[in-house]
Amino acid sequence: MSNLARKALSFPSIAEVIRRLDPSYPVFCIFPEILQNRAREFVSGFPGTTLYAVKCNPHAIVLKALNEGGVEHFDTASVPEIAKVVEQLPEAHCYFNHPVKGRGALESAADVYGITHYVVDHIDELNKVIGIAGTDITIEVRISTPKGSAIYDLSSKFGTTPENAVSLLKEAHARGCRTAIAFHVGSQCTDPDAFRVAMEMASGVARHADVPIDYMDVGGGFPAAYKYAVPPLQDYFDVIKATKERLKLTMPLYAEPGRALVAEGCSVITQVHLRKGDDLYINDGIYGCLSEIRDCDLDPPVRAIADDRVLSGNMKPYRIFGPTCDSLDTLRPLFSLPEDISEGDWIEFGMMGAYSIGMQTGFNGFVTDTIVRVDGLHEEFPF
Ligand SMILES: *Cc1c(COP(=O)(O)O)cnc(C)c1O
Q1: Mutational test site, ligand 1, from 51, 73, 75, max ligand atoms within 8 Å of CB
Q2: Quick check: 337 and 320 in contact, CB under 8 A?
Q3: How far apart are CA 292 and CA 298, in angstroms?
Q4: What is the pLDDT of residues 212-263, one digit of tens each?
Q5: Ligand 1 — pocket residues by CB below 6 A?
Q6: How far is the CA of 193 from the centre of ligand 1 (A)?
Q7: Which residues pair with 279 in a beta bridge?
Q8: Which of 105, 135, 155, 281 has its CA 20 to 30 A from that of 381?
Q9: Distance between CA atoms of 86 and 69, rounded to whole angstroms?
């Protein structure tokens, strides 16, 4: 096990974290066993190769746990992400899947880390990549797909039209590169059919390009089950498999899940520092680990803990404010918590593994930098 993963404080339960640390600071809790189980489920269910999208949560313990659950390929978007994976897992395969790469980053990726897979969505980027990494590489051409039912659009910034994709594939092939097709239907995509639509587009591109396609990368977007119901992962796998068969696609499939692998495997323990009526002021917020609660309508489960017991009893809605001086630092939904919650009690936010510790800003000096592992399953999940 790596140094970082070994050195992290380890606890048998959330109750024990609170009992032993009595934290007045926020604590990010990682459950390696839950992460391993999610990885196993995805790797064995997806009809192809699973890459973990590192940006979703790059912590060493998370990478290690997913790897132990069977993930050996990693979707990386920067040299620091590649370095993190390689340092932790020397045998892992990294793919440089950012469609816009700096020349310096490309040089490090190619020369230091020996990366051989690169995403492009423009002819100038193709020329840049080939100029630096040579042609003994795989060029994945990313197409943009309809946003559909996803919470985040990942096609308005990156991805090209089917027409351009055809000419990029032909050009990459003519220059001597191996070729592949990629797309991303958008994050937290709640409709499995979005994958059918995107795969049909990608298949049309492959047919028109008429070059060997090494694989089709269906991207991420597989949802996590926050408080609202989402289709089970198996529904997505079934649609993808059925579409592959119906379109008679012979190339292997890749997927790049982030959220679906890690959301469930982490939680954040925050503390109430002041209660003013029905307003609670806590020590993590939108500039820390809880940014997604403002940016989209994610409504993670919460529970209140006092000393060493879970608070229950009559519940009522509260507004929750984060620690920075900015009025924007407010969680959008109202949270249902016990009516006797008070200063010094803790609020645990569940399902916080995705887009949380990786998106902290440090604004105003508030950072959630106490990270612990909790070995075993969550004592009370879902709460
Ligand atoms: C963010 C991202 C992912 C992961 O998306 P999730 O919605 O978390 O599954 C995968 N691939 C690419 C290219 C991304 O940018």
Answers
A1: 75
A2: no
A3: 7
A4: 999 999 999 999 988 778 999 999 999 999 999 999 999 999 999 999 999 9
A5: 53, 55-56, 75, 97, 154, 184, 187, 219-222, 256-260, 354
A6: 18
A7: 276, 319
A8: 281
A9: 17
Most ligand 1 atoms within 8 A of CB, residue of 50, 101, 154 to mutate: 154
3-state DSSP assignment of residue 348: strand
Ligand 1, atom 1: closest residue by C-alpha? 53
Q: Distance between CA atoms of 300 and 382, rounded to whole angstroms?
A: 10
Residue 308's pLDDT band (boundaries 50, 70, 90)? low
Calculate how far, in angstroms, residue 53's C-alpha sits from the geometric centre of ligand 1. 6
Token pair 């001086």 is found at: 325
201 closest CA partner among 155, 141, 144, 149: 144
Report if pTM > 0.85: yes
Q: Are 382 and 301 in contact (CB under 8 A)?
A: yes
Please tell me the CATH superfamily of domain 32-262, with its number. Alanine racemase (3.20.20.10)
Ligand 1 pocket test, candidate residues 156, 256, 261, most atoms within 8 A of CB: 256
Token readout for 191 is 């409709």
Q: Two tokens at 252?
A: 């292997």
Calpha distance 205→198 (Å, rounded): 11
**Mean pLDDT for all residues in the chain:** 93
The answer to whether the 2-30+263-374 and 32-262 domains have the same CATH topology is: no
Q: What is the pLDDT of residues 19-48, one digit of tens each?
A: 999 999 999 999 999 999 999 999 999 999
Q: Domain ranges in the chain?
A: 2-30+263-374, 32-262
Domain at 2-30+263-374, CATH homologous superfamily: Lyase, Ornithine Decarboxylase; Chain A, domain 1 (2.40.37.10)
CA distances to 198, 270, 304 from 22, rounded to whole Å, are 49, 11, 14
Cα-based distances in Å from 235 to 73, 114, 143, 150, 239: 23, 36, 24, 16, 6
Closest-CA residue, ligand 1 atom 5, reads: 220
**pLDDT over threshold 50, residue 1:** no
Taking the CA of residue 355 as reference, the ligand 1 atom at the shortest distance is: 8
58 CA to centre of own chain: 9
